[in-house]
Amino acid sequence: MITQKRGGIMIRKLKPEEINNFDLDFMNFRTTEEIPPSEGFIGQKKAREAIEMGIKIREKGYNVFVTGVTGTGRRTFVQMMLQNAAKNLPVPEDWGYVYNFENPYEPRAISFKPGQGRIFKKRLEDLINEVVEVLNKAFESEEFARRISEMEERFSRMRKELWESLEAKARELGFMVQLTPAGVVMLPVVDGKPLSPEAINALPDSAKREIEERQIKLKHLVDGTLYRIRKLDIEFRKSLEEFHKRTALFAIEPLFSEVESEFEGETIRKFLEDIKKDIMENLIDFLKMDAKERKEIYMRKYSLNLIVDNSGLDGAPVIYETNPTYSNLFGKIEYYVRGGFLQTDFTMIRSGSLHRANGGFLILEAERLLSQPYVWYNLKRVLLEGQIGAENLETTLGISNTITLKPDKIPLNLKVVVIGTPYLYELLYELDPDFRKLFKIKAEFDWEIPRNELNVQKYTSFISAVCREKNLPHFDKGAVKRVIWYAMRHAKDSTKLSAVFGDIVNLIVESGELARMDGSTVTTSSHVIRAFDAMEKRKNLLEEKYDEMIKKFDLMIEVTGSKVGQVNGLTVLDLGDYSFGVPVKITAKVYLGRPGVVDIQREADLSGKIHSKAVLILEGFLGSRYAQEFPLSVSASISFEQVYSEVEGDSASLAEALALLSAISKVPIKQGIAVTGSINQHGEVQPVGGIIEKVEGFFRACKSRGFDGEQGVIIPKANAKNLVLKDEIVQAMKKGLFHIWTVETVDDAIEIVTGMKAGKLTRTGKFERGSVNYLVYRELKKMKKLLDGAYEERNKKKKGKK
């Protein structure tokens, strides 16, 4: 830094060597092929500690919300940390749904030891296959048929004996009994022959009465016999059914006992008992079906719908749900069409990400999460309840008339990590009371890291890792240095490195591809420079248009000569993916009138609140410095010429102060010097943003108009560390064509832009004669006298009229 003493003030001009001043001499390598690739992430200690704390605290509500700038590697970082943590956690239980024999519309949830769900499902399928097979064999065996035949013969003989007994008793009463489809017919007989109705009618009345009396007795005997035959039939069916059950139970009991011995748990045992009981109760239906139909029905009804299978895990699950729709997150119940109607059962229940992440970690993106209807509300509900079932959105909203299921809810124990912007975090924190209960851990990702030897080494390892991953030509030392330069520039601070690794990777990839296109086996600094230039050119169309307007004087910026009340300020246009600096002419006019500074931008509603505040601070500075002995009696106006959009920020307040002091003192300002910086009421210059863009913006303007060796930019001293400039600016500084001065006070800037002493207060309380401050003071005092004289003259005229 060149320091020149002028009028008691130290004028500081940056040396070219101070810009982009860093080296890699502490590292000994030729290319990144010699550097081991990085493992893990660079920096982000604060975020790491917050996430680790969230992982360790198992209490309810300690979920994590990760905030940060896009491109800082939040997703990859979070996934890496959670996967490492998950390895040390136990594998959670498997979960499935089975048929509820008491209420089919409320399927039962059943849990298994990790990996046992898949085994039980397969074992259950084998069991049902075996059950169907052994039952088929048992019921189709010769022994079964023989036993059934014996039972039928025995009951048939008993039935025949009852009927023969009835017939004998009927003969004793002079009747014959016949069994017809309409029932039992009782016919009176004489000499072994039945009497016809005509013959009966021809009998005497006494004989008729005797036949009726005997018929009544026979009727009681018939009813009793039929009753005993019905009881015999019932007994036969029960015996038949009992025999089927005994046969079935004898066949399948060993199969179920074997499965029960393989799996622990009361729920599993009860389910197997329910299956066995249901088989026993539906044996008759089973016998009526063909073999294929039996297997299809049994395999569906007695199966396990395994919705969470952790058999392939080594530790807890880590699920990253990229599309958090209602069904993807909370599961759903599907339907099938049968007979023109929608039907469903427990086998149609599908799991969601929450089910699969249960016992581990679920990663979600806030923006996608909040864009899905009712997802955020339901996520809060299940986290607060600590349990989850499966329900379709239309059922939740009560707008579905379709018959559906109500599955058992499963205990929910997981850690949810949501990744979002700081804005979304603040919005949820302020507007949603449940958010504070559920997301008690905030992990903030930094967009920059300190530039020290350790982090530079890590950056080099990162470049090595990207080259290996993308199969790119490795970077030599010069190329690495240029990437570090870009990382500092991206961070807008020469003491920092950017942590927005997405953009760094883009530069590495494009540089490596350019090297490959050139047929080079190594990526050099020239490839990185070309890639950087190409990335800028794809986005700088508007910048080129502004430069063209400056070159053609359509934007009336002057970069040579001197003008009173006029200075070149610097502004930044931010297009989102690209920002660039543009000089703007700031003019000031002073005149007698109502005291105060008129901000033309503010009067035209083209001033933001911060800029309006800066103008008020400027008034305070003027009053405190020059109006200690008399009130300010000057009216001033400040304008940003050819600016038709809103002006915001306070970075132009130093330039506004210089323009205003020049207008008052009538001391011209060098137009080849642009100014940026904000001031406080003490006249101290404060740091501002966009220093790189502002310096380069004025450099381009001077370059298009032609250098005269006197041009340059004044910046706040505190902003010197923010300068990470392009090579052509550094070269111009070395040639003496362009300069950068740093200032701490308004007086520092006055001396640079005017070439005159700013002027300090002497012991008498006056400014040094011949200084700019003295001229300002003198002019303000003169204006005060003129204004007082004008008031007196007006008062005299009023008195004369009276």
From TrEMBL:
It catalyses: Hydrolysis of proteins in presence of ATP. Coiled coil: none annotated. It holds the Pfam family LonC_helical. PROSITE patterns: LON_PROTEOLYTIC (PS51786). Keywords: Hydrolase, Protease, Serine protease. It comes from the Bacteria. InterPro entries: AAA_32, Lon-like_helical, Lon_proteolytic, Lon_Prtase, LonB_AAA-LID, P-loop_NTPase, Ribosomal_Su5_D2-typ_SF, Ribsml_uS5_D2-typ_fold_subgr. The active site is at residues 651, 694. Its EC number is 3.4.21.53. One of its GO terms (molecular function) is serine-type endopeptidase activity. GO terms for biological process: protein catabolic process; proteolysis. The keyword Hydrolase applies. Residues 561-756 form the Lon proteolytic domain. PANTHER family: ATP DEPENDENT LON PROTEASE FAMILY MEMBER. Belongs to the peptidase S16 family. This is endopeptidase La. It comes from Thermotoga neapolitana (strain ATCC 49049 / DSM 4359 / NBRC 107923 / NS-E).
